[in-house]
Amino acid sequence: MLVNGAVVAGKGASAAKGRSAEELEQIRELLRTRFEELDAEYEEAVAQSHRLRLVEIGDSAGDDQADSGSKTAERDAAGSLLRTLLDRRTQAEYAMQRLEDGTYGNCEGCSNPIPVERLEVFPSATTCVNCKQVRERRAS
């Protein structure tokens, strides 16, 4: 079965164990490409955030409350985007490490294989759906 273009073993099989070198390389390349895309997106967002701050510094004279509020909202949105991109980049990097360690595709909670369908949607997944739901319930 394919995971975003990479071959993944069928249900019940460990995602890293029992794979051919070709399959592992396909998954590795998928994760590396995803990491590089996220890294480039993050770096661009950092650059845009810096440009926004420079504009604010030079353009704050005469701001009223509405202008100040708008700028604060833009800063908050930019910061949120940066945190999200950094988190996604870190997840991709962690998935690559798990692949190297031979644990990629196994749930960190129960050690069972993560269903292929979940990995197709979210290649950086570290938990099966059941363990993810348990974690979310505990967090709320």
How are the secondary structure elements laid out?
Elements: E1 2-3, E2 6-7, H1 21-58, H2 65-101, H3 116-121, H4 129-139
Antiparallel strand pairs: 1-2
Helix pairs in contact: 1-2
Give a short overview:
The chain is 66% helix and 3% strand. The protein is mainly alpha-helical and 140 residues long. The relative contact order is 0.16.
Averaged pLDDT, please?
81
Question: What is the radius of gyration computed over CA atoms, rounded to a whole number of angstroms?
Answer: 20 Å
What's the tally of helices?
4
In terms of DSSP E residues, the strand content is: under 5%
How many domains? The number is 1
Which parts are unreliable, with pLDDT below 50 for 5 consecutive residues or more? Answer: 4-15
Range of helix content: 55-70%
Compute the separation of the termini in Å: 35 Å
**How many individual β-strands?**
2
Order of helices and strands: EEHHHH
Global morphology: elongated
Order of strands across the main sheet: 1-2
Largest sheet data: 2 strands, antiparallel
Structural class: mainly alpha
InterPro entries: Znf_DskA_TraR, Znf_DskA_TraR_CS
Keywords: Coiled coil, Metal-binding, Zinc, Zinc-finger
Pfam families: zf-dskA_traR
Biased composition (Low complexity): 1-18
